[in-house]
Amino acid sequence: MTTIREHDLIDSIADALQYISYYHPPDYIRALSAAYEREESPAARDAMAQILINSRLCAEGHRPICQDTGLVVVYLKVGMGVRWEARMGLQEMIDAGVRRAYTHPDNILRASMVDPPIGARRNTGDNTPAVVHVELVPGDRVEVELAAKGGGSENKSRFAILNPSDSVVDWVLRTVPTLGAGWCPPGMLGIGIGGSAEKAMLMAKAALLEDIDIHELKARGPANPVEALRLELYEKVNALGIGAQGLGGLTTVLDVKIHTFPTHAASLPVAIIPNCAATRHLHFTLDGSGPARLQPPQLGDWPELAWDPAAGARRVDLDTLTRADIAAWQPGERLLLSGRLLTGRDAAHQRLVDLLERGERLPPGVDFTNRFIYYVGPVDPVRDEVVGPAGPTTATRMDKFTEPMLAATGLIGMIGKAERGPVAIEAIRRHQAVYLMAIGGAAYLVAKAIKGARLIAFGDLGMEAIREFEVEDMPVTVAVDSRGESVHETGPREWRSRIGQIPVAVV
To answer: Strands 466-480 and 450-457, how do they pair?
Structure first.
């Protein structure tokens, strides 16, 4: 009988979470590198280059790929022949490993879990608890699959119960365009078909833990209907033209994974969960011999890219910028920002808008006149950093705050990731402001452009507090110009037309 010791599971969970925070899986790097070589859209190609360069920097510097270091999800298959030498339960042991990983002094990871989920929503401070799924299986081993799932992609999970005669393909092709770009494509789609409502969602999440192998499948051909469905969806989703970061292009998904389970004769449950460009997952086995041994990848697995952020880019001095200056910017134009900007996301925006509605002054030091706000919740700095990885958060969540912020504060621009909705775009057009997009999944690369950071207001909000960043040559793209034209609408439309494989009626 195999004995698994408490500290071996705790150590393995902690080591694995540190590992996946800065090492992309090699299969993802190979797939993204191949997509980069095939890509014809300049904007999508630039986004992929930033993701790949960021990935290599993180592998070298042992810092997080993305500032959103994720909700921890663990799938355990516990052999029925295993004996535990432990005082804690499984949830407690896993949480102890999460706590150790996320507070590691040499690579602090961002704590994002809040409790309770409604009301106060206080940050737990150490990213616990993890979401744990346990299955008892024959054998004398413990199989562990774990992932750190970012909120941007998790928020795009969708579920439906179709009629048995309905087309899964049609439902997926209707659903994916509604996800927007907040899940940071190119990534993977996990799909669960059958079972019950909760089973379909669990299968979709578990499917994302598999290696990318779509090109091997294409080469040998499908061996069963599920593999044929994977190929069909891979081709047709990419033909939607959404592209990297939603900018339009040839590659939206690097793979489509499907798990199925028998279901009720009256039902066809279907779940879809995307994985983002910060794909983070790992599998290891405990056999009683000690903690898992994790082999670092070779740096040769990453491509050498000659990416020049200054090529064709407009340099912008944020400290002297006026509304007249931004009126000349064009949709899709690349900029390099230098100077000072303020940060803030959901919680800070809610407080600011509450103050405005009550007619009260904004906190000392919070002056948005002719300034930009960056939607970001950075990782805490370590060693000589001024700030940890600081990539953009999904801008769509701030849409409802955009009109009051632009109308009452003197704000002229915003920076985030993904598209803006109709309400925000109309506010941007009305106030002749702009929205700029930084690349999701390139958080450490963005942080290299941040030369100074200081707390301004709402320090109790932690990573959601308002800070002032001093940046130098921060790369961004004009996503919505002062006339309200959005590249997240024009880009995919252009590339869908170019690819021309999906009838418009399906979308």
So the answer is: antiparallel
